[in-house]
Amino acid sequence: MSILLAMCFFSLSMSISPGPVNMMILTSGVTYGFKRSLILVTGATVGFAFLLSAVGLGISGFLAQAPVFYEVLRYAGTGYMIYMGYQIMISRPEIEVKDEQLPRYRHGFLMQWLNPKAWIACLSGVTSFGLNDSLSLLIIFVSIYFFICYLSLAAWALLGSKLQFLTKVKNGMRVFNLVMGGSLIIVAVYLLFSHF
Fold first, then answer.
1. What pTM does this model have?
2. Who's near 6: CB < 8 A, 6+ residues apart?
3. Is the separation of the CB atoms in 144 and 4 below 8 Å?
4. Could you give the 3-state DSSP secondary structure of residue 110?
5. What is the rounded (10 degree) CA torsion for 77, 82, 85, 87?
6. Closest CA to 45 of 191, 147, 156, 184
7. In tens digits, what is the pLDDT along the chain, a chain of 196 residues?
8. Are the beta carbons of 136 and 57 closer than 8 angstroms?
9. Which one of 14, 104, 108, 158 has the fewest beta carbons within 10 angstroms of its own beta carbon?
């Protein structure tokens, strides 16, 4: 029973702590509201579950044969997060919700696969719990993580929706977009220079 509790705490601490995906979901919550942001939450959660499963099934061992992969991931992930941060920073403060601007499932899914924090969580989780040797334990961990990750990311979307009052404050959205976009860029650069 203690390993299940440890898996729950690990999943919660990694899912709820601020990171690139959490910032994107928070921004989406402010801009589009809670319900419209759930598609992004779903995409990010499913993307993470697939990544965790792939790492647990041995993709990390395969990729260890090509260490250039991790370098490419670091730079591609950083580039993508900087691009998304820039897009947030320059987005118009007036909210006009158009279908093509709504959060998309694929954005959440892709963000996890390019997110160094997600890779760190997967690699350390699989290693810490010895999941390479037990398929049943891997399935349990992925299930626990999926549930906790979804709730954690949904909490960020809910927090964002509670900050929608910023849309009514003069320059509120402009400042919010600058802070969130800048924060995402800072996190991306920090993750570029951290080692995993």
1. 0.77
2. 129
3. yes
4. helix
5. -110
6. 147
7. 588 998 999 999 889 888 889 988 998 998 889 999 999 999 999 999 999 999 998 876 666 666 677 677 678 777 877 887 787 788 766 545 455 556 788 888 988 888 878 888 888 888 888 777 788 899 999 999 999 999 999 999 999 999 888 778 788 778 888 887 888 788 778 767 765 4
8. no
9. 104
Residues shown for the chain: 196
57: which DSSP letter? I
Which residue shows structure tokens 């950083």?
78
Give every CB contact of residue 161 below 8 A, 6+ residues apart in sequence: 29, 30, 33, 34, 37
Place of tokens 């041995």: 58
Closest alpha carbon to 117 in 50, 25, 188 = 188
In this prediction, residue 97 carries a pLDDT of 47
% helix / strand / coil in the chain, to the nearest 5? 85, 0, 15
What digits encode the pLDDT tens for the residues 55-105?
A: 998 876 666 666 677 677 678 777 877 887 787 788 766 545 455 556 788
State both tokens at 112: 């996890």
Q: How far apart are CA 106 and CA 44, in angstroms?
A: 8
